[in-house]
């Protein structure tokens, strides 16, 4: 571990200069694979949890035409409580600015932890556009709605109340079940568990992640898009929900995950190692592309 850390030394401690500590060959055919778009979120810069070193390494190896920063990039909530800003976090910001300067379209969609940036929607900082939400059209013509996703917390809070009511309803069904089966017994019918039937449904209603995913995908469809790219819940995922493509690009606190679009429009979830191994990225799971 120590050796790996020492090996990183040179570029850990040497700030990425304004000009170009990285050779431009990185962008040539012999360099790393080039992507059409990269989506990352939940970096939480300004907190000790942010895996800035792994992120710098990932960015270096994934040049792209578009880069979407899908919210919770800088953790304003934590910074207000306790200032934490090491050199590596500066390096990330410099890297993002440099990428914009080099012709990559960098779009920043603020999240709840960097909601201070929502006051600057419509402006741009050093070429980084700040927008409330975005629409990305893939090379194969799919329309993806790009949003952080925290606005759906309210919807899910409502869903929790419904689930709570559902729970009380469950108590009621237990009673109803007893009466129902007394009646069924009198009629000579076998026992049937209404409560067991409903229990599964209530359990499902209590599943926050599922609620979030369904709520976001439903709104994307309502807005007329083929899919959605979001973050917020720190859970990378890509799957169809009711005919809408739901993509969550994960986070850079625990999972080091990103969503990428290949030049042909194919989308893929990538997981990058915590300690840079300078190897190829691995898919989060087999077949996690669409
Ligand atoms: Mn968030």
UniProtKB/TrEMBL annotation:
GO CC terms: membrane
Highest taxon listed in the record's lineage: Bacteria
Presence of the UniProt keyword Manganese in the record: yes
Family annotation (Pfam families): Metallophos
Protein name as catalogued: UDP-2,3-diacylglucosamine hydrolase
Keywords: Cell inner membrane, Cell membrane, Hydrolase, Manganese, Membrane, Metal-binding
InterPro entries named among the record's database cross-references: Calcineurin-like_PHP, LpxH-like, Metallo-depent_PP-like
Native source organism of the sequence: Acidovorax kalamii
GO terms of biological process kind: lipid A biosynthetic process
Signal peptide positions (record): none
GO molecular function term, any single one: metal ion binding
CDD domains for the chain: MPP_YbbF-LpxH (cd07398)
Start and end residues of each Calcineurin-like phosphoesterase domain: 36-235
